[in-house]
Structures are given as C-alpha cells and as structure tokens.
Amino acid sequence: MTESPTFGEADSYFTEELLIVTKTYPVPSRDYIETTCVAAISSQGELRRLYPVPFRLLERDTQFRRWEWITAKIDRASSDLRPESHRVQAESIVRGQKVDTSNNWNERLTWLRPHVRASFSELEDIRKIGNEPVSAY
Asked: How far is CA 3 from CA 12, 20, 31, 46, 118, in A?
C-alpha cells in the first residue's frame, strides 16, 4: 500500500497508478479557472478523489478517458478531510491501458466490487466512523 506523506511537506507528492472510474463535467472555477472532479481506484484497490483536475486545459495526449489507467503524482488534499481526497500534478499524468468490457465487465467489476455496499445505512455507518472512504450504494 502506498502511504501518503504528511500534509504540507514540500515533496509530498507521490506517484500512483490509478484506474479512472468517472469524472464530472468541467465547470468554471474562481480559484482554478475550470475544474473537474475525478473518481479513481489505485492499483492497490483504494478509492481516490482527485480534485481539482483542469481536464480541458490538459494537453490532448494527457486527457484520459473513463476506465483507463493513468500514472500521476498525487498528494493528500490538505483542505479536504475525506480520506480519499487527493490533489494531482496535472503535468505528471501519463495515460495507460484501457480496461475493456469483455466477459460481462469482469475486469471492471473486479475493481468495483470491493467498494459496493448493500445499503445506504451501511454507507452512513462508514461515513460516521470517518477513517474509510465512502463507497457506492
């Protein structure tokens, strides 16, 4: 498992392989010009929330797609206490292989299943504990 360094360290960014699950539509931002929020799963199976991602401002060859692996330098987001929240160095993004839908989404489901919960109340219990990312219902 990749350990995140302490908040505020000058060299606190670390390189991680991430499977992009989804991303929001880019919206204007007063602080960042335009941003996108990206949901990903690390190669160790941990959820990652990447924000802000200046998606449409990225070079064309780094504009990743859903269900595509990327390698990027990320850091824990100091202004967001959710354990899955990270910042990304946009210029460090390198696109990788796409995970296809063959065998009824078998490979995609392998990454998703550990994060699916049976009920909303189970999600709420996880949120209250606060040391684990909230998954999907």
From this structure: 10, 20, 28, 11, 28
pLDDT in tens, the chain (137 residues): 444 444 445 579 999 999 999 999 988 888 878 889 999 999 999 999 999 999 999 999 999 999 999 999 999 998 888 889 999 999 999 999 999 999 999 999 999 999 888 888 888 887 788 766 665 53
Contacts of residue 45, Cβ cutoff 8 Å, sequence gap at least 6: 111, 114
- Establish whether the linkage from the previous residue to 5 is cis, with ω within 30° of 0: no
- Based on its alpha-carbon atoms, the radius of gyration of the chain, rounded to whole angstroms, reads 15
Whether residue 65 contacts residue 101, with contact meaning beta carbons closer than 8 Å, is answered with no
As beta bridge partners, residue 70 has 18, 95
